[in-house]
Structure formats: C-alpha cells, structure tokens
Amino acid sequence: MATAKTDRRQRLKYSIRKKVNGSAERPRLSVFRSNTNIYVQVIDDEKGITLVSASSHELGEKKWNTNVETAALVGKKIAEKAIEAGISAVVFDRNGYLYHGKVKALADGAREGGLKF
Asked: Closest Cα to residue 42, out of 56, 24, 27?
C-alpha cells in the first residue's frame, strides 16, 4: 500500500508529464531524489532513450545524505555531459517534487553549467 505522500507525488508527476515532453531538439531533464542520493537524466521521449545521466554517486564523495551543495554539483556535472553530447537546451521535469531545496539547487547548477531551460 502506497503512502499518501507517494500518491500525491504520483498525481503531480502525471499532471507534469502531460505538459512536459522531451524531443530530439529539447530533451527532458528528469530529476529523481532518494533519501540518500540524487539522480538526473536527459531523456529523448520520442525515441524513449536516455542520452546522458549523472548522479551523486559519480562525485566520489562518501556522503550518505545528499545536501544542497551536492545537488548543485550534480547539476553542473549533467550540464557538462550534455554539452559534450551536443545538447544545449532542455525541458526541466521536476518529477513531482517541489521546486525547492535540492531540486532548485540542481536546476541552478545545470544553468550555471550552460544548459538553457
């Protein structure tokens, strides 16, 4: 049985995905936040493939709790990888999470890294 918190996030996720769709020109930047890590993918929804991805695992730090600074570093890392792959503009998908704290820091880090959204 799912909790009320996960049900709420799932409803929000569906309503966001109705409006946000990634293409080859502007793929979708999708965020997933767990209790210990933060993950981000750049996805082409037309082909159904992940173009690039990054996570807090790649930073090499042995932190069990992802904080705002780590999320900003992950945002810069995904921007670096996306620009290497030839992607400069994306559509941001917050994936049902509030645009606050770690999610906002990740978005700001991606913008600082050179992605446009």
From this structure: 27
Structural domain including 43 reads 5-113
Q: State how far the Cα of 117 lies from the Cα of 39, in Å rounded to an integer.
A: 18
What is the rounded CA–CA span in Å between residue 32 and residue 25? 22
Q: Number of folded domains in the chain?
A: 1
φ/ψ region of 4 (left if φ > 0, alpha if ψ in -120 to 50, else beta) reads alpha
3-class state of residue 39 by DSSP: strand
Measured between alpha carbons, how far is 87 from 8 in angstroms, rounded to an integer?
Answer: 32
User: Whole-prediction pTM value?
Assistant: 0.85
Tally of CA atoms within 13 A in the half-sphere of 51 that contains its CB: 27
Q: Which of 46, 112, 51 is nearest to 81 (CA)?
A: 51
- Model confidence at 114, in pLDDT bands (50, 70, 90)? very high
Neighbours of 93 (CB within 10 A): 24
